[in-house]
């Protein structure tokens, strides 16, 4: 570390994460400054209004500036290859690392990551724990900010965090009570640089972990941990010892743990293999936390899922429309395609920013299950080349929906599962999903 380093911290990133870190540092009386590579008057004004008197810097990062600080808390959106970061001698940490320092070691911490389904599983785990009478604080990547949870912490609180690869990139020794990486598929490779780097970031969730839940069908999600680490696996296969699976009981498919039946698959409020896997993962995490089986089953039966994740809208002229705007990567979209059950044709809408993902496996699944695909957005050419004659290329989501709706007839399904980020045409996947809903509703009114 530079000899001129002070006891002052730098918060790098003046967005929501930066605000949360700043509030935490102010509460602790820690001196800090804030910097952001974006030269935005709106972002600068918003931060300075919230934290008057705090020194700020906006623009390209210089190493001699970064070296002045004892450590730098880097917001998730700041890429590893940001100019200046690779050369500074100041330690780089995440807001989750700051949270871990503040979270007492004796209190339970549940950590959930994965390329897909992490928000759904996090929410289901939180609902189960609340049904069990626990004082649950849930946040992280899905919001609210992890550090903002501390204000509501009591001595009996349990934290349930959804963690992204961006957050885990600069987090060490999380020491979660129980953790899982639900699955691994190519995502954010433009940010991490390679699948290896992405994998390494995700698996930092297991550093110092007390117990783990593992996807038995996804080798990339399985961690290297000591053999004595308590482990529960899940898979869409016949159950085994300490593994959730599917078993036929009197002609009905049941979720089972080993040979013990838990609940009929049909009792889940949402259909599809993705929801079965989500329920198994949540059951595994809560089982390791000591929750009774009956409590978990009751909570799972009433769980309604998340907005923009495989939400089926009321049919229009007999055409089913499914909003999966949260399918922001190829793995999520592939799972969505496989999960649709229909006697009619399946028409897929996909497009946006593909984030450098390998489209090969996704394309194979799409070609197998979809009658046709309508691709739009920035990377529409790349998607169209991968899918060939099975795809029609248009510019916007509006055009894609119109083309699909004109082709569809009663009994068909229009699935909106983009396999891409939204930022080329929408602020986020939520607004993209809302827009899809509006397109569907507009045709209902015709």
Plain-language structure description:
The chain is an alpha/beta fold. The chain has three domains: 9-93, Rossmann fold (3-Layer(aba) Sandwich); 104-302, Mur-like, catalytic domain (UDP-N-acetylmuramoyl-L-alanine:D-glutamate ligase); 311-444, Protein-Tyrosine Phosphatase, Chain A (Alpha-Beta Complex), CATH 3.90.190.20. The chain contains 15 helices and 20 strands. It has helices spanning 16-28, 41-50, 63-66, 95-102, 118-131, 165-169, 189-192, 195-202, 273-288, 293-302, 330-339, 360-369, 380-387, 397-407, 429-444, and strands spanning 9-12, 32-36, 56-58, 72-74, 92-93, 109-113, 135-140, 157-162, 178-181, 212-215, 231-234, 243-249, 252-257, 260-264, 311-316, 319-323, 346-351, 372-376, 391-393, 413-416. A nine-stranded mixed beta sheet has the order 7-8-6-9-10-11-12-13-14, covered by helices on one side. The protein has a six-stranded mixed beta sheet with strand order 15-16-20-17-18-19, with helices on both faces. A five-stranded parallel beta sheet has the order 3-2-1-4-5. Strand 12 (243-249) and strand 13 (252-257) form a beta hairpin. Helix 5 (118-131) crosses helix 9, helix 9 (273-288) runs antiparallel to helix 10 and helix 11 runs parallel beside helix 12 (360-369). It starts with 8 loop residues before the first strand and ends with a helix. The model is unreliable at 1-5 (pLDDT under 50).
Q: Using DSSP, what is the number of strands? A: 20
**Tally of structural domains:** 3
| Mean pLDDT reading | 92
| Helix content range | 25-40%
CATH class category of the largest domain: Alpha Beta
What does the largest sheet look like? 9 strands, mixed
Strand content: 15-25%
CATH topology name of the largest domain, in short, is: UDP-N-acetylmuramoyl-L-alanine:D-glutamate ligase
Count of runs of 4 or more consecutive helical residues:
15
Low-confidence stretches: 1-5
Spatial strand arrangement across the major sheet:
7-8-6-9-10-11-12-13-14
CATH architecture of the largest domain: 3-Layer(aba) Sandwich
How far apart the termini lie comes to 66 Å
Structural class: alpha/beta
CA gyration radius, whole angstroms: 23 Å
CATH-defined superfamily of the largest domain: Mur-like, catalytic domain
Coarse morphology: globular
């Amino acid at each position: 570390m530079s000899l001129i380093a002070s006891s002052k911290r730098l918060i790098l990133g003046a967005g929501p994460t930066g605000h949360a870190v700043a509030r935490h540092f102010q509460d602790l009386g820690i001196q800090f400054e804030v910097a952001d590579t974006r030269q935005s008057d709106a972002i600068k004004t918003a931060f300075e209004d919230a934290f008057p008197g705090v020194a700020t810097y906006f623009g390209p990062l210089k190493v001699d500036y970064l070296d002045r600080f004892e450590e730098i808390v880097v917001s998730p959106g700041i890429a590893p290859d940001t100019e200046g970061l690779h050369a500074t001698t100041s330690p780089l940490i995440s807001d989750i690392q700051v949270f871990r320092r503040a979270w007492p070691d004796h209190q339970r911490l549940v950590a959930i990551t994965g390329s897909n389904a992490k928000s759904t599983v996090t929410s289901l785990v939180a609902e189960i724990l609340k049904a069990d009478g626990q004082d649950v604080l849930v946040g992280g990547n899905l919001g609210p900010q992890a550090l903002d949870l501390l204000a509501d912490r009591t001595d009996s609180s349990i934290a349930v965090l959804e963690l992204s690869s961006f957050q885990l990139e600069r987090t060490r020794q999380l020491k979660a009570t129980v953790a899982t990486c639900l699955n691994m598929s190519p995502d954010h490779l433009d940010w991490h640089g390679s699948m290896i780097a992405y994998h390494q970031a995700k698996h930092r969730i297991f550093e110092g972990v007390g117990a783990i839940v593992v996807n038995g069908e996804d080798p990339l999600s399985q961690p290297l941990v000591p053999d004595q680490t308590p482990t529960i696996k899940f898979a869409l296969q016949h159950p085994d010892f300490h593994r959730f699976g599917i078993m036929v009981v009197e002609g009905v498919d049941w979720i089972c743990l080993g040979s013990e039946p838990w609940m009929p698959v049909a009792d889940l409020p949402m259909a599809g293999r993705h929801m079965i896997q989500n329920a198994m993962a949540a059951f595994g995490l809560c089982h390791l936390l000591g929750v009774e089986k009956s409590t978990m089953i009751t909570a799972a039966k009433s769980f309604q899922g998340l907005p923009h994740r495989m939400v089926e809208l009321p049919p229009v002229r007999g055409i089913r429309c499914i909003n999966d705007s949260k399918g922001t990567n190829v793995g999520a979209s592939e799972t969505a395609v496989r999960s649709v059950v229909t006697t009619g044709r399946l028409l897929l809408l996909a497009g946006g920013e593909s984030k450098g993902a390998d489209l090969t496996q996704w394309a194979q699944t799409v070609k197998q299950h979809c009658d046709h695909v309508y691709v739009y957005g920035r990377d529409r050419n790349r998607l169209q080349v991968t899918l060939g004659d099975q795809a029609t290329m248009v510019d916007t989501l509006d055009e894609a929906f119109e083309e699909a709706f004109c082709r569809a007839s009663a009994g068909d399904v229009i699935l909106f599962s983009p396999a891409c980020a939204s930022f080329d045409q929408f602020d986020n996947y939520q607004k993209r999903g809302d827009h899809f809903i509006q397109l569907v509703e507009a045709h209902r009114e015709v």
